[in-house]
Each structure stands twice: as C-alpha cells, then as structure tokens.
Amino acid sequence: MTKLFSVLLVAFLAAGYAQGQSESTKKEKYHGRFREDFDKPTSKFFNFNVRESGEDYRYFSGISSLSEKGTKVMLYRIDPEDPAGAGRGPEIVSKDFTHFGSYSARIRIPDITKVQPDAGVVVGYFTYHMDKVAGLSEIDIEWLIADPEIIYIGTWTGESGNLQRVGRIINLAKGIIYDTSYRKGNEASKPLSGIQNMPESIQPIENYNAASQFYTYGFDWYPDRLEWWMLHPTTGNKIVLWNYSGSTPEFTGIPQNPSHYRLNFWHTNNWPVETRPNSIEKPLYPYELEVDWMLYTPFKGITKNR
Length: 306
Fold this sequence. Notes:
The chain is globular. The chain is built from one helix and 17 strands. It is mainly beta.
C-alpha cells in the first residue's frame, strides 16, 4: 500500500511539474519579426477576440479597402450595441509575446465628423499585458475619432490599483502639443520637461486628417527610451512625435516586461477628445476602421526580462 501511494504521489508530482512546465513554456513564447498584411480571412500572428457564440461580424480580414483601390485590409466594424469600455469592441491580440523592438502599422480611422460629431469612439494601436509580478506593460497610440487631427501617445506601467502614466497629446494638423505629462495613481498630472519633452515642438502636417487616408504610425521600444513616430504622407520621412527618455521624479514610465501586440476599436462614455468635451455619445452606426498592415521587428541583443 505504501509503495502504491509512493508511486501515485510521484506520478501526481510529475504531472503537476509537466503542467507547470507547459504553462511556463507557453508564457515564454515570443514572436520573431513578422508583418501581417491582412490579405486572408485568418491571421498567422493574431487572435481575433470573437464573441462566445462564435459568430462575429465585426471583423473582415482580406477584403478590398473601401477607400484605397488595390489594397486588402482588415476592416473592423463597431457594434453600436457593444457596451462602453476598452476591450468591449473588436480587438486583435498577438498570439505570442512581443518585447523591445520596432512596431508600425498603416491605418485609416473612420470619418464620422459629419454624421455624429460627438461620437465617443476610440481606435487603439498598442501593446498590453498585465503581469502578476512585474505589473502593466502598455504602450499606446490612440485616436478619439471625434477629432481626427489629434493623436494620443504614451505608456502605462505599475501594479494594478497604482498605475503610472506618461503621455502626450498632439494636434498634427496644427502642430500643437496640448500636453506632455505624467501621473501616478490618482494624483493630478504634472508636466514633463527637458529630455522627457522632446521634441518641444511639432511642425504641422498639411491637411492631416487620420480619417481621410491611410497613414503609417509606429513606435520604437528600448529599455531606456521610447520613440513614437509617423511617416510624412508625401515625403515618407520619419516625423518624431515624442522621444521620451529619462525618468519622472518617481518612476521611469518605460515598460520593461514583455507584452502583447494589439489593435482595438471601442466606445468610450467618459473620455472626450481634447477639442470636443461632449464627444462621449454612443455610436449610432457601425463605423468602420481599416488596417492595411501591422509590422513587428524585435531588437537583437536586448535581453528579455521576465
């Protein structure tokens, strides 16, 4: 009996160890360089967050663009009946982890200014992963589509309940930087200056409107700095939107732990765009977002921290 118990105990521990190893291996999987062109109904690199029913008409990958001939896209369609909140609308998530590297995408947001100028709708191009030990790793480029001239960029780090934010708000058509600041927990935002506020000014991009055509946006994530950028629509030159380095008085603001590469489209009922304080309305129609491609290139020689 004792011998049988010992055998069963060893088998149980071995099974537990194998399961733990399997989970660990799964958690440690990382993407190499990839480019998703969305020219097929499914993706090799991203999972679609579909509804539990399995029927989800918010995603259309591999279809012809409605705004650019000859281009195949991923089309997101927001459902006016979806509840408010990040992650409640259509979202794609990388199948494995990504980390320090260069990220870019070619995106056209919906044009709703004449149909519903105060629609509360967010387009998020970002990384996100909440680790139980290391905390949140999030890098954002976001648009509140009620004003397609404005872009929001920044990061979230820290533990749940005590998150830390660094961010910048820019009107790219007018060349106005509305805000460059940091915030810890529920404290008020404080301005950033010096090397944390570079460049200090942005040249306007003539006729910039994120809903009028596709633009290429990106960010380069290093252990000690982050650079958000876009490509000029006519010259193709890189425009640096924010080269953030250094640290705030209390935290660096630069995520260190791995994350997942994402893009989402959702209704907000409490975050109006900078220029339209009432832009939190529930969307009236199934507005459409187009994504041409998404690219990830990991930096070589930089150790993954986990």
